[in-house]
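We modelled each protein-ligand pair independently. The example shown here corresponds to the zinc ion entry; the chain sequence is given first, followed by the ligand as SMILES.
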Amino acid sequence: MFVALDDTDSLESMCTTYLATELIKALGVYDLIGLPRLVRLNPAVPWKTRGNGALCLRLGIGRGEPTMVGELDDMPVYSYGRTAEEADPEFVLTVAEDVISRLARTEEGASPGLVISAEKPAQRFYWQAVRGIVEKTDVLQELQRLGADLVGWEGGRGLIGATAAMAWRPRDRTYEIITYRARERWGTPREIDPLSVRAMDLERPSTFNSFDHGTGRMAIAPHTPCPVLFGVRGDDPRELMAAAFSIRSEPPARWLMFLSNQGTDDHLIKGAPGSPDRSYVFLGTVATVPRTIAGGHVLFQVTTSHGPLECAAYEPTKGFRDVVRGLRPGDRLRLFGELRAEPRTLNLEKLQVIATAPERRKVANPRCPVCGGATKSMGAAGGHRCKRCGARTSDPPVTAEVPRTVAPGWYEPPVCARRHLSKPLKRMGL
Ligand SMILES: [Zn+2]
């Protein structure tokens, strides 16, 4: 029995993953089969909430050896590899509907959706929702085909994300342990020792996006007054548990491990950008010298197989902008980023400099072809004239190659400025 939900939070508060812990508590008569899944969807959709993440749980009576995957208010949560007996859909529906009705932030603009199904939706619902935009009518048709139970609140936009999360069959996967604060601490400053986060980042190589060594800032805690204390991401579930428990902080009231598509680049469409509100990976050649505009954003143009395109490295990407500023016309790139509609600009997420073009700078006027003397420019008329004998020349000026500041290689923004879905270079073996 799969239970999926989405769009229960708002920009202000709550967090869909916290609601999942409430759901697991309320449905405690059942076991988790596999891990709860935290599925991030197209980060470019205009109506997303904070992280555009949906959730899917599989419930039943477990079979085989259980694994501890969390603790909720001093109660351990176990996960099983296989199902001995399916959960009762009617009971799950009643309990889940009650939990979401109580906790979802509909008055703050959330539009929750809940889907319960014995069978998974077609896989394309995941790929469409992570890379593009899915119509609710398509989703409703699929859910009807499956004979799924569904509830939508305030328009039920969350039914789309819930269906997509349930449809996910991982090609690539990562894990995240999320810890939650005791209720009386919600809204107060989080107590986390950044040095312990730094040490964890250095000692646990299978974790990623935890600490920004450039700025000395940790990236595991949200900046909103939500119930999350911190989240640690990684590739190895066992090392992840040791990593999360090595962080010195206020005592978490709950923790839970999720299976996730975070850090997988699943959102990228291969090919030159077409429709906006989507993300792409494609090849291009730098066409203009990058310029820094007000606010510290850096813009330049590339030539792609679909024509010219404006690219941007925005201010929050900090040192990544220095790489972008060093690009020169003729440089061959692989670009990763999200295409915005207005203005039509690619927001760079990552960059491979495949080859740099030679950059030359004028060092002198051409020499006189007749007497070898120095020449001076004839200005608007074009060409140069010898200062000694008066002969004219149309020879180009003398140039010298300038050393380039950017070398071929891979570049990404610092940890704090990365997208949930962007695959860190660390995960690419780079
Ligand atoms: Zn001359």
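The longest strand covers residues 53-63.
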